[in-house]
C-alpha cells in the first residue's frame, strides 16, 4: 500500500514539474488574450494544412497563435513584466533576450529529439504586448534556410 502511494505521489510530482515549465507561458498567453483590446489569431492544423501547398515554410508547423494588445495600461505593463521576468523557462532554450528601457523581448525554443517543437516570441513595450507561439515538429535546417532566404 505504501509503495502504491509513493508511486502515485512521484507520478503526480513528475507530471506537475513538466506542466509547470509551460504554465508561465500559458499564463502569459491566457492573460494577454483576456485583454479587452486584444486581437487574437489561432491557426490550427486544418487551416495550416490548406496553406501548406502554397508555402514550403509551413512544413512541420501544427499550430500558430498570435496575440497583440495595444494601448495597455501601466498596471497591465507591470503585470506582464512580472510574469515575463519571473517565468521559469525550463524546457525552453532562450534564443534571444533583451531588456531595454520599457521594452522586453524574448525568443524561446523548445527542442526535443533534434526537432523544434515550439517557438515562443514575446515582445512587451510600454503600451503594447505581442505574443507568437508556433508549435510543430520543425527541422532546424528548414529554419536556417528560411532565415537565410529572408536575410
TrEMBL record:
InterPro entries: DUF4252 (IPR025348). Residues 1-20 form the signal peptide. Keywords: Signal. Pfam families: DUF4252. It comes from the Bacteria. This is DUF4252 domain-containing protein. It comes from Barnesiella intestinihominis YIT 11860.
Amino acid at each position: 500500500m505504501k509503495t502504491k502511494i509513493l508511486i502515485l505521489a512521484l507520478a503526480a510530482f513528475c507530471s506537475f514539474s513538466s506542466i509547470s515549465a509551460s504554465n508561465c507561458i500559458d499564463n502569459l498567453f491566457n492573460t494577454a488574450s483576456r485583454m479587452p483590446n486584444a486581437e487574437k489569431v489561432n491557426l490550427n492544423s486544418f487551416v495550416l494544412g490548406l496553406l501548406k501547398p502554397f508555402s514550403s515554410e509551413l512544413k512541420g508547423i501544427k499550430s500558430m497563435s498570435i496575440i497583440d494588445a495595444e494601448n495597455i495600461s501601466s498596471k497591465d505593463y507591470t503585470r506582464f513584466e512580472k510574469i515575463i521576468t519571473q517565468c521559469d523557462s525550463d524546457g525552453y532554450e532562450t534564443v534571444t533576450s533583451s531588456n531595454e528601457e520599457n521594452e522586453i523581448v524574448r525568443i524561446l525554443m523548445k527542442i526535443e529529439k533534434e526537432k523544434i517543437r515550439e517557438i515562443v516570441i514575446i515582445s512587451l513595450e510600454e503600451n503594447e504586448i505581442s505574443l507568437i507561439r508556433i508549435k510543430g515538429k520543425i527541422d532546424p535546417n528548414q529554419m536556417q534556410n528560411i532565415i537565410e532566404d529572408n536575410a
